[in-house]
């Protein structure tokens, strides 16, 4: 238990006074940590820019199309989606055509990026 306690990040010193950030998180000083942080910040910035650029496309989708995007990025295929939503496979295919047209989707990775950015994963 003592070794586990020593490996934990402290929020207070031995005399229960708050420690400053550099004492509490010594790994933040490393160049690798800074590089990872900068990469993450860049990734978030790019995601926000993508979201802003594609907001109108998102707004053009129907509730059903959003639902189908979520199921697609969850790995479901057309027959599985049709069964889950109680619609025909042909209806799913038509929704997918509409989605591809509205979002200008060229490949599955584009659809996944869109779904991830707009949090369209099924709950």
UniProtKB/TrEMBL annotation:
Protein name: Helix-turn-helix transcriptional regulator
Compositionally biased region (Polar residues): 1-11
The HTH luxR-type domain, residue ranges: 54-119
Pfam families in the record: GerE (PF00196)
Record InterPro entries: Sig_transdc_resp-reg_C-effctor, Tscrpt_reg_LuxR_C, WH-like_DNA-bd_sf
Source species of the chain: Agaribacillus aureus
PROSITE patterns: HTH_LUXR_1, HTH_LUXR_2
Keyword match Transport: no
Keywords: DNA-binding, Transcription, Transcription regulation
Region (Disordered): 1-23
UniProt superkingdom: Bacteria
């Amino acid at each position: 238990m003592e070794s586990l306690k020593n490996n934990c990040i402290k929020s207070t010193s031995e005399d229960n006074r708050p420690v400053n950030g550099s004492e509490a998180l010594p790994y933040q000083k490393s160049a690798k940590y800074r590089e990872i942080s900068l990469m993450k910040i860049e990734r978030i910035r790019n995601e926000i820019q993508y979201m802003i650029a594609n907001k109108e496309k998102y707004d053009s989708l129907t509730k059903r199309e959003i639902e189908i995007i979520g199921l697609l990025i969850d790995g479901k295929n057309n027959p599985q989606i049709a069964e889950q939503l109680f619609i025909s496979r042909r209806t799913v295919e038509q929704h997918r055509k509409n989605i591809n047209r509205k979002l200008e989707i060229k490949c599955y990775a584009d659809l996944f990026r869109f779904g991830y950015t707009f949090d369209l994963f099924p709950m």
